[in-house]
Amino acid sequence: MLSIHRLAFQRQSIPILRQVALHLDAGEVVLIRGENGSGKSTLVRLLAGLVPAQDVFEVTLDGEPFSPGDPRCQARFAYLGHTLGLKDVLTCQENLSFYRQFLGAHPEGLSVSGALKACGLDGYQYSPAGRLSAGQRKRLALARLLLRPVDIWLLDEPYSNLDAEGITLVDRLLQQHIDLNGRALLTSHGTFVPQVTRHREVDMREFTQ
Amino acid sequence: MSATSAALALGLRDVRLALRNRSEVLAPLLFLLMVATLFPLGLGPDTRLLEQIAPGVIWVIALLSCLLSLNLMFHADLEDGTLEQLIISRWPLPGLALTKVLAHWLISGLPVTIVAPVAAAAYGLPGEPLQVMALSLLLGTPILSAVGAIGVALSVGLRRGGMFLALLVLPLYVPVIIFATAAVSASMAGLSPASSLYLLGAMLVLALTTAPFAIAAGLKVSIA
Questions:
Q1: What residues in A contact B20, CB-CB < 8 Å?
Q2: Which of B2, B51, B61, B99 could join B124 via S-S bond, C-beta 3.0 to 4.6 A?
Q3: Chain B contact for A66, CB < 8 A?
């Protein structure tokens, strides 16, 4: 279980997050719902170690302390933010090949072509990422998650820019992930409900008031 | 080892990106050639004068062209989110920063190291000082990349970071240009350039071993 206690965050002395308490079981998807500017992204970025924590807060993973920014912990999660980490001038295949080599090959990770196929980008191997539509780029970024299986997925607005088929794709990837006992933390400002067997919703207002 | 393989992947990707965006890489080189051509036009065809000013002028131009190419280093990575992925990866960030510095030198410093001595030869710099010039560029340009990367890491998140970058980085470039031109001048005067070159070498080691930590810290500040 990933549990977060007493996480607070302020920007220019305006509190963004107050007393976040959240837990995430193995095999569970938690969707954080909140309006624009409610601090969803900040929360995810704090957990990813992209934003330095201001106060001491406790995060434990299966009972052991989990400190964002620590390399041992960083090997256990994957993060997908608003900026997708793709290079426009490189082809889909080159983008994924880079991440596959960079993240380190894993016996259970998919091959580059396997990941492209799983995300419905079959036939786009040689297209530069810059030529893809916003939804296709999102799919390409999602394909990166399949190259090396990790325990925790931190996905900031995974449903944005996607068509109906893309949304089903996200749900399918999430289902596969939790079937393997993975866990995922998503954010959304929309009304999407993840179509997976086990999910919970948390309202951002709990943490900001 | 997979950390080395990750670094290699990052370095190769940077080189590949540079080959795709050739104009960005060629611009600093063109700048170097153009300014080197303008100086004799402005100063007149006095060969003795040109020979005398060659070490200083060529080094200053080389330094400025390195400064021009600095913003290639982290801007694109910040904008497209690659930088976030590098920071959250399980690899030590200073190691990745060193990789970025070496890749940047390969695509900007190395071409300058090759082209600048040609310009110096055109100024009439004789054989031995020319060799010293090339050697000083080989030792000095990686320092420019490493120290410059600290400035870029700190300013990459700013909207108008260019001026800040120059103010931050140019004072740190001063020792490099002093000792590099001292080496060439010593060689022109028939003295041994060894002491200055050794100092440049020491600065290179210092820059490559310590700058990556400063770059990593700067990047983390910029992204937060």
A1: 89-90
A2: B51
A3: no
A53 CB within 8 Å of a chain B CB? no
Could you give the angle at the alpha carbon of B20 between the alpha carbons of B84 and A122, nearest 5°?
70
Does any CB of chain B come closer than 8 Å to the CB of residue A87?
yes
Q: What percent of chain A has pLDDT over 90?
A: 14
pLDDT of residue A72: 76
What distance in Å separates the CA atoms of residue B204 and residue B208, rounded to the nearest whole number?
A: 6
CB distance A27 to A199 below 8 Å: no
- 3-class secondary-structure state, position A58: strand
Whether A69 has a pLDDT exceeding 90, the answer reads no
Question: Which of A115-119, A130-134, B23-27, B173-177 is the most confident on average?
Answer: B173-177
pTM: 0.90
- For the beta sheet containing A2-11, the strands, ordered from the edge strand earlier in sequence to the opposite edge, are A14-24, A2-11, A58-61, A64-65
pLDDT tens by residue, A115-154: 899 888 888 889 999 898 888 899 999 999 999 888 889 9
Given an 8 Å threshold on Cβ–Cβ distance, is B88 in contact with A49?
yes
How far is the alpha carbon of A123 from chain B, nearest alpha carbon, in Å? 22
Answer whether A103 touches B (CB < 8 Å). yes
ipTM for this prediction: 0.89
For residue B201, pLDDT over 90 is answered with yes
Contacts with B17 from chain A: Cβ below 8 Å: 87, 89-90
Asked if A167 reaches chain B (Cβ–Cβ under 8 Å), the answer is no
Residues comprising chain A, all counted: 209
CB count in 10 Å sphere of residue A37: 12
Which candidate from B9, B16, B84 shows the least CB-CB separation from A79? B84
How far apart are alpha carbons B163 and B159 in whole angstroms?
11
**In chain B, which residues have their Cβ closer than 8 Å to the Cβ of A74?**
88-90
Contact between residue A22 and residue A183 where contact means Cβ atoms under 8 Å apart: no
